[in-house]
TrEMBL record:
Keywords: Isomerase, Pyridoxal phosphate. Belongs to the alanine racemase family. Residues 314-441 form the Alanine racemase C-terminal domain. It comes from the Bacteria. This is Alanine racemase. InterPro entries: Ala_racemase (IPR000821), Ala_racemase/Decarboxylase_C (IPR009006), Ala_racemase_C (IPR011079), Ala_racemase_N (IPR001608), Ala_racemase_pyridoxalP-BS (IPR020622), PLP-binding_barrel (IPR029066). HAMAP family: Ala_racemase (MF_01201). The keyword Isomerase applies.
Length: 449
């Protein structure tokens, strides 16, 4: 099994901005066989860095870090890990450029901070789903080329075109909306035409594609738009070797060819998400669009973990025990008493729940690390809290509970929570709620926090 990612023990953080940051901050674990729980690299002291400017709906976490008192829970984001992951993805992408996907508040890591770290790691493009996300990035003065691909007629097309946001068009109405905006603001709209090649989601189907490219070519000839990209998205990139990927690559090539026949000369063809970036070289084209891997999580967890891919998880989610108590055998725990203590034991109360993004589906299953030992959620995850059975381990209120992180201290990973909740790690990090403050560090944090 080979991945496109080279497996050197160390990578140098390359790309714009890298020189200004500590290049060797992140030493990625050695290649195959290295486990995230193995010998931790020498950790430089954590430096707190300025969180992204607050104010918009998309970077509401920033200001939280400055509230007095220790938060019940916090998500610590290692920006050096994001930089190094992107650098690794740039290596994997070969001659293709990297668009770091920072939609959904940077998969829960903070959109602006994630975008800046990704650009410092060598990404040249930033990708988001919605126009509001794109405009928030522009408002925060994040540089780089910027694409938004999930648009509706009611979006603020004028502001997006005026701000130089590149826009997806998967239907003729979108080309018309772009043309109207271009005329309104006096600048051509830059479009990426979306082909439906087999995902069964957005984009023009094979039968609608000729009309879309012809309409776009006319708008381009009139000077209203520039068609800079043709793109699509894969349905089964995480199922390595699935023939559906080959079929989509072939369909994509045909769509690009039909665009050329219409007289279009797109600068970039792009098809790959994280999974395709690391496992499907033939789908890289000119630009790859990794999201999950930017944050150091494996897009192909059945094949390889983050360490084997040369990635480092950037988010560590911790909480502080809110209560600790001794109870007898047979004590029913949490709603529905789905857990009953098998013997006299100590219960610890963890003050995060499904309102904070801890999946209720991980009741009786989600793993945590307390004082160096793994435990599981005991009983049902509630809105604000859940319980762990600590056995006879001494514990006091305020003790740290690690829900997931990069694994340096033997803590679970986001993928372990994904497995416990029968979902994917994308959802685990993205769903971490606004009530959990994000704290930014630049380098590996070790020890207590
Ligand atoms: C979310 C998304 C990506 C990134 O996907 P990952 O699996 O997180 O790498 C890329 N392209 C599009 C169109 C997306 O919606």
């Amino acid at each position: 099994m080979t991945f496109g990612i080279p497996r050197e023990a160390e990578i140098a953080v390359a790309g714009p901005g890298a020189a200004a940051t500590a290049v060797a901050d992140v030493r990625l674990p050695a290649g195959p066989g290295a486990t995230a729980g193995g010998a931790a690299p020498a950790a430089p002291p954590a430096r707190s860095v300025t969180p992204p400017a607050g104010g918009s709906a998309f970077d509401h976490h920033g200001g939280e870090a400055y509230r007095p008192g220790t938060p019940h829970a916090q998500a610590r984001i290692d920006l050096a890990a994001i930089r190094a992951n992107v650098s690794r993805l740039c290596d994997a992408a070969g001659s293709a450029e990297v668009m770091a996907v920072v939609k959904a508040d940077g998969y829960g890591h903070g959109m602006v901070a994630a975008a800046r770290a990704a650009l410092a790691g060598g990404a040249t493009w930033i990708g988001v789903a919605g126009m509001r996300e794109a405009l928030a990035l522009r408002a925060a003065a994040v540089p780089g080329r910027l694409l938004a691909w999930l648009l509706t007629p009611g979006d603020d097309w004028n502001s997006a075109v005026a701000a130089g946001v590149e826009l997806s068009a998967g239907a003729e109405w979108a080309v018309r909306a772009a043309v109207r905006a271009a005329h309104a603001v006096g600048r051509p709209a830059r479009l990426h035409l979306e082909a439906e090649t087999g995902l069964g989601r957005g984009g023009a189907t094979a039968s609608d594609w000729p009309a879309l490219v012809d309409t776009a070519a006319r708008a381009e000839a009139a000077g209203s738009v520039q068609v800079v990209g043709v793109w699509s998205h894969l349905a089964r990139a995480d199922e390595s070797g699935h023939p559906g990927c080959d079929q989509q690559v072939a369909n994509f090539r045909s769509a690009a060819e039909r665009a050329r026949q219409a007289g279009l000369t797109p600068e970039v063809l792009h098809l790959s998400n994280s999974a395709a970036t690391v496992t499907l070289p033939e789908a890289r084209f000119d630009l790859v669009r990794p999201g999950l891997a930017v944050y150091g999580l494996s897009p192909v967890p059945g094949l390889a973990g983050p360490a084997e891919l040369g990635l480092r998880p950037a988010m560590t989610l911790t909480a502080r025990l809110a209560s600790v108590k001794r109870v007898p055998a047979g004590h029913g725990v949490s709603y529905g008493h789905r857990y009953r203590t098998p013997r006299e034991t100590t219960l610890g109360l963890v003050p995060v729940g499904y309102a904070d993004g801890v999946p209720r589906h991980a009741s009786q299953a989600g793993p945590v690390l307390v004082a160096g030992r793994r435990h599981r959620v005991a009983g049902t995850v509630c809105m604000d809290q859940f319980v762990v059975d600590l056995g006879d381990v001494p514990a006091t209120p305020g003790d740290e509970v690690v829900l997931f992180g990069p694994g340096d201290r033997g803590e679970p990973g986001a993928q372990d929570w994904a497995r416990a909740a029968h979902t994917i790690s994308h959802e685990i990090v993205t769903r971490i709620g606004a009530r959990v403050p994000r704290t930014y560090t630049d380098g590996t944090v070790s020890g207590t926090c």
